[in-house]
Amino acid sequence: MEQVFLTVDEREKLKPMCRALLRYGRGVVPVDDFRRLRSLIESAVGADVYHRDRFGNNPVMRNLAACVLLCERLSPDRNMVVAMMIYNLYRREFISRDAISKEWGEDVAKMVGGLNKVSTLYSRHTLVGSENFRNLLLTFAEDIRVIILMILDRLALMRAINHHPDHRQVCDVAYEVSYLYAPLAHRLGLYGIKSELEDLSLKYTNRDVYTQIAHKLNETKAGRDAYIADFIKPIKEKLEREGLKFEIKGRTKSISSIWNKMKKQKNDLENIYDLFAIRIILDVPREREKNECWLAYSIITDMYRPNPSRLKDWLSIPKSNGYESLHITVYGPENKWVEVQIRSKRMDAIAEKGLAAHWKYKGIKSEGNLDAWMNNVRDILEAAESGPMELMKNMRMDVYDKEVFAFTPKGDLYRLPLGATLLDFAFSIHTNVGCQCTGGRVNGKNQKINYKLQSGDTVEIFTSAQQVPKQDWLNYVVTSKARNKIRVALKEQESRVAELGKELLQRRFKNRKIDIDESVLSKVIKKLGSKTVTEFFTRIADGALDVNDVVEAYLSATRVADEAGKISASEYMMQPSVSDEDLRNSDDILVIGNNIKGINYRLAKCCNPIYGDEVFGFISSEGVIKIHRSDCPNAANIRTKYPYRVIRTEWSGKLGSQFGATLRIVGNDDIGIVTNITSIITKEKNVTLRSITVDSNDGLFQGYIIVGVNDTTSLNQLIKKIQTVKGVKNVQRSK
């Protein structure tokens, strides 16, 4: 079995990898589970279930590598390891979800389902350019452990593709990792993993720079180690005299971090001042952590001159991912700057293992904040107007946790990303406060809405009932919440203005006793240079278009249409209109379907017929037969004016490719309702979500969802299921 399935190199790596997994996974996964996993995998190998990925990697080896990383670098639960090992078997339909739930537990089954969703999305190779990115993040938001497993899987993949010949594919993975997975690892406190992902990304995308920095670091390693030893020695002696129990580690910063400093400071490696980092880890009970950390701080700053501007106090206010530490940069021997990190043993475990340490240390401050961040991810996903790239921008902005801390006059603390403004602060308090914000008072001084906050600022917001969001506000905010709320408010304003313009035009038409023909009006809208109906009515309301000019343009277009429709009496022949009954009784039947050839027909865009609809054919002036639904809005007009061009039509009885159908949904504007609707659609068999647009006003939303379905039966079933969603008032097929 191994001779066929594994290469010589893979066979050499297999046993050490299994031993490593057993060693690191001891106490996490029972030995009996390992035996059952081995038996299951061997059965799958015998059935030829596994297939190598696009890089030629063996999936079992990749899963093993990810599990070793998981157990070595984090504190996983048993279910995470099992899910990582068997999700490929579920994906290949070797084992069912019910079987997984029965054999390994429902929690494992849910995680496997999440991993499979993500793998399916990746297999389409259209991640950023489609709704797949939204779906990926939705999957992430369902279970945070899926994020952790995918990060570790990406790291295992990045290690495995070092020598792959296809440079373009390798770079694609590297860019994706640097853009999404490294920031996610950072946000979850997985700093070691984040650094390695960034280093590998730099290595694959800019190998010359990586090699150059690595070479220089190797050349100076001996001198660097000696310097760190000399720096640590007096600190160690003084800490011991104070009776502190501790451990000191010295390290050089990562290659990617050094490269970022070189670019930021526009300096060579030799001129980067803080390449060194010293970590002091105190063995101290939790109730004395802060006191002894500050004691160690005072000892170090007595010996070496500190840089006060580089002090980072994550003890008093931990990061939102739970990170606690005291950072200070001091001026060491030989005129070199050294960063010193001071933390307890508990804090170090959380710093090393990030969120995963939460399962070991319960009740730390960050858990609620982390939940708030995950909720914010969901808020980003539900922003109706955000395309994939905007999602990417928002996610990247919110994932990095470089934060500022600001207070209300009452002392309430708000965390905001670095660069946040007074307007961001207003929206973080409440949407209405943000929309009505006129400015504020920061530390007793009046400031404008674009004032950038600093940590420790006390902020009082000024509001006015007459204030409304402006377009340029989008340039003043950095948080996704503020940006999304401003966009929603601007769209609502535009709709109200457009309604006013529409009312003005209708009133003028009524005064002139003119009936509006929508087809003629559409031509007028285009002729007057408006791209959308909303834009057209907005221009009327703003005075950019004179109502009288619009009426005259409409009358002119009507006269042209009437003249074009006039024909001589000799050419005119009365034709009776054709009813549905007439069509049913006709002997000539046009049969359409996937297997019909030699007939030039198209599905009409005005009514989008799908398999199962009652339909009829209409011979257009181009000679193309257009297929309309019997209840098409244009059906009555067609049958009256052109009965001789109407053809009785039936479906062939065979299903072809999916048909597009538009659903109009009205409901309460509740949090998560859009997510619930899209979740139903994605779970429905033989139904695909193509696009979604949502408008919200006065607590109600109206959405148009385009789905791909096989027939009317599938569509009707989908409509019934959407109607069961809490908050949905009406669902109907749009014509």
State the fourth-level CATH superfamily of the largest domain: Hypothetical protein af1432
How large is the radius of gyration?
Answer: 33 Å
The CATH topology of the largest domain turns out to be Hypothetical protein af1432
End-to-end separation: 59 Å
Structural account:
The protein has 735 residues and is α+β, with helices and mostly antiparallel strands. The protein has six domains: 2-203, Orthogonal Bundle (Hypothetical protein af1432), CATH 1.10.3210.10; 215-364, Beta Polymerase, domain 2; 368-474, Beta-grasp domain (Ubiquitin-like (UB roll), Roll), CATH 3.10.20; 489-565, no CATH class; 580-651, no CATH class; 659-733, Alpha-Beta Plaits. 51% of the residues lie in helices and 16% in strands. It contains 28 helices and 20 strands. The strands form four sheets. Strands 1, 2, 3, 4, 5 and 6 form a six-stranded mixed sheet that branches. Helix 7 (106-123) packs across helix 9 and helix 8 crosses helix 9. The protein is globular and about 100 Å long. The two termini are 59 Å apart. Mean pLDDT is 79; it is low at 124-135, 358-370, 380-401, 565-578 and 582-587.
How are the SSEs placed, and which strands pair?
Layout: H1 2-5, H2 8-25, H3 31-46, H4 59-73, H5 78-91, H6 97-104, H7 106-123, H8 132-142, H9 144-160, H10 167-187, H11 191-205, H12 207-219, H13 221-241, E1 246-252, H14 255-265, E2 276-282, H15 289-303, E3 305-306, E4 312-313, E5 326-332, E6 336-344, H16 345-353, H17 366-381, H18 388-399, E7 403-407, E8 413-417, H19 422-429, H20 431-435, E9 437-442, E10 445-447, E11 457-463, H21 480-511, H22 518-527, H23 533-542, H24 547-565, H25 580-585, E12 589-592, E13 601-603, E14 615-619, E15 625-629, H26 635-641, E16 646-651, E17 659-668, H27 673-683, E18 688-697, E19 700-709, H28 712-723, E20 728-733
Parallel strand pairs: 2-6, 7-11, 12-16, 13-15
Antiparallel strand pairs: 1-2, 3-5, 4-5, 5-6, 7-8, 9-10, 9-11, 14-15, 14-16, 17-19, 17-20, 18-19
